[in-house]
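Section 3.1: Structural characterization of target chains.
Under the original work plan, the team committed to producing a structural model for every single-chain target entering the pipeline before any wet-lab resources were allocated. The record below documents one such target. The sequence was received from the expression subgroup and is listed exactly as submitted; it comprises 365 residues.
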Amino acid sequence: MSLHYLKPEQVLEFQNKLLNFFEKNKRSLPWRENHDPYRVWVSEVMLQQTQVIKVLEYYDKFLIKFPDIFHLANADLQAVLKSWEKMGYYARARNLHQAAQKVVQELNGLIPDRYDDFRKLPGVGDYIAAAVMSIAFNQPYPVVDGNVKRVLARLFLIEEPVNLPASKKIFQETAEALMNHQQPGDYNQAMMELGATICKPQHPKCHECPVSEFCRALESGQQTEFPVTLQTAPIPEYHLVVGIVQHEERLLLTRRPLDGLLGGMWEFPDGEIESGEALKFACECMIKEKTNLEVRVETPLTRVRHAYTHFKIVMEVFICQYISGTVKLNGPIDYRWLLPEELAQYPLTGANHKFLHLIKKEALI
């Protein structure tokens, strides 16, 4: 793979055609209305792991609640997580909250305008740093996300797998070689827009591509063969029991540790079970182990399947009745006995949301 076949004037032509395409065809998205660094930053954090259509449900609401970095920094983490509820990848929200506090406390609320300084903030990786620096501060740092990698792989027949960490260098260098230094923010967005709307993973719209004349994959009829992706191991599946513990018209909710998967989110107590283990017994033992409570499983409620990025879970959900004991946590960091109507105040995991409507049918809510 090489850019050697593109002369400087061809690179300029490529940039101009891409920028013209973006100007005429860019989607109307709320985070494109202005280039305020805070707003750009929030949008890029949301977009990092979530599709545009989903982010559109959250972006404006989040900014209404936290209109600037001071409001975000001064907010309680639980309020931030509640605003992020059901969008997933909650480490993004925790890191953004922590980074906002750092900016307010140490930098007087001024978001760094230098790449290296901004890159040091919690949760800021190469992609977010490049996006914010280019879009908000007009600095020529290329963004290299999945869309951009796919475009580059097809343009130049890059054979290195896009999901191999060792390939990062070749994609980064290629992106830098094509970078437009006069309009870096628009150029980066144009590259991502091209990948999202034209150079799609399946059935790319080559006949609509503004830079098709530069594409070696199209020239050789290999569009469907690029990008190259390494096969990954099968996604493991884990079996869990969940206990909805009732006591005097209240339900027990526990909070996950702040670090790790779903950090800081609230959920009904759950735990992994071994293959062949009796489900009701496993549920009672799990609740005893995690909360020190003696309970009796009353009835099964449902089975829920939920997928994360690297694994899947199957949850056997049971309604349980409190018998005795005082809560002493082993694993969770906090708990609440809540009236059913109070559940809505707490940021619940996506898997728990899948059976809330069934609790209502059982007259618990």
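The chain has two domains: 8-225, 237-361.
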